[in-house]
Amino acid sequence: MAEAATRRRGRGGGGAARRAERTAVSVETAKYIERNIPLYEVLDDEALEIIERNAETILEEVGVNFVENPAALDRWREAGADVRGERVHIPRGLARKLCATAPSRFTQHARNPERNVEIGGKTLVCAPIYGPPFVRDMEGGRRYATMADFEKFVKLGYMSKWLHHSGGTVCEPTDIPVNKRHLDMLHAHMTLSDKPYMGSVTDPSRAQDSVEMCEILFGKEFVQDNTVMTSLINVNSPMTFDEVMMGALEVYATNNQACIISPFIVGGAMAPVSVMGTLTQVLAEVMAGIAYSQLIRPGAPVIFGAFVSSIDMNSGAPTFGTPEASQIIYGAGQLARRMGLPFRSGGSLCGSKLPDAQAAYETANTFNAVLLGGVNFMLHSCGWLEGGLVASFEKFVMDADQLGVLHKLAAGIATDENGQAMDAIREVGPGGHYLGCAHTQANFKEAFWRSDVLDYKPFETWHEDGERDTMTLANAKLHQMLNTYQQPALDPAIAEALAAYVAEKKSSMPDAFS
User: Which of 151, 159, 313, 504 would suit a FRET pair with 194, their CA atoms being 20 to 30 Å apart?
Assistant: First the structure.
């Protein structure tokens, strides 16, 4: 009896030590993913050639709208396009020729050089959710987002090991005037994290503010010679570029900053219901946008984007994690690689209202397609809920944890001598066990990926601990992360200059909430 009690104390002591290690302050960030596994190609060469030919037909015969931007129309005329009103008809082959100057891979620099990311080739960079006006957590339920919520998400992103990028509008802080909130958001990314981030695209002047703030943080010359922002330029599908998005693109391309040129498509509403038809429209829209970026500045870094969901034909609501969405990710990835361009798609997409089984299934379906489809930049990697209307704190933590699975899968299978494990098999022999053998002792810490959120306890222990479900565990984890957060150091002179810039800009204009 005493021996049994001693064994229990021994296990408890080891467990306590491990728990202390897990709860220690850590801001370790895994390097961006580099795939050592083959990609899945859903389309053969004949199908890809059909899509490419049809996309060229759309650009030439149907055309693309560039609205309320006379300068854009002039640039297209000079390039050889047929401009009729605000409709630009791009001769066959012209868009693809212009796209050829865009780089196939680029580095986005972070203020901490150890956090720099490579976008393109075999890499996958994960960035958090973008754009929701609402947030949700177990304490406050569903509510409009505030700047305090925004700052919490930035801190969680900084503390998340498997997240490589701080993102952009991780939620929309509705308590700050529309014309000023971009300043506070960018300032939070720059000061509360040292990971790479995104700039503002809601107005060309706000894009310019983003560039100027980067010049304070990095130095003006460095910004002009290097990419320090990757920002999202959405196409108003079908086949329309508005003056706000194009104006932001012009600012970023002029200053050598990267843009994701991304159609925003709900299949059946903004594109055909067929996968081939949607891929054709995606390619036409992306080619037009990337070609325009190269008219602004040849060599400006860009990413081929594809954000596509299907639609529930009964309710009209967008759906996520569907087979058709995965097929589009696979196909669009093939098209992007044929153009030699980095590819953006996917995320923790779901239509669920809570971080429940539906959310998990739909998110997992998309994560798998992202990994095997060759995505290089995954926006919305964590926190997405309710079709993107809600940023969930608990789901942010759950999704960020699951990104570790992608890292493990992408690494492939080790086939070296250690991976073959013949010494272990010889040592143990028939009828033995591997728990104490030399190979296990040398490899057990890294052999199996382990979640920092999910529950692996036996039933009795789980019951004694309160029968906590995954959302409850994620809630506890997020509070632990926020409680142990420590702000990364920043040169006081730079911090002061950034704060002064934000204060001056905000005081120079009246508040506007629309």
Answer: 504
